Amino acid sequence: MQGEETDLGRYRVLVNHEDQYSILPAAYAVPEGWRDAGFEGSKDDCLGHIRDRWTDMRPLSVRDTGHGG
């Protein structure tokens, strides 16, 4: 699916329990293990939204323990 655009080019931002982000075409159902982060737009807009918020790439479980960097 990577590289495909939906008919309207709309995407949504997703986040999982580890506070990791992804995007998904807006027409698709949110997969198990992910939740809607409340942002929808073009692919570039969604990636910009993620870039502004995902400042620590380590999974949340690693950040909480103080390990991993």
Automatic annotation (TrEMBL):
GO terms for cellular component: cytosol. Pfam families: MbtH. Coiled coil: none annotated. Residues 2-52 form the MbtH-like domain. InterPro entries: MbtH-like_dom, MbtH-like_sf, MLP_fam. Gene3D superfamilies: Structural Genomics, Unknown Function 30-nov-00 1gh9 Mol_id. Signal peptide: none annotated. GO terms for biological process: siderophore biosynthetic process. This is MbtH family protein.
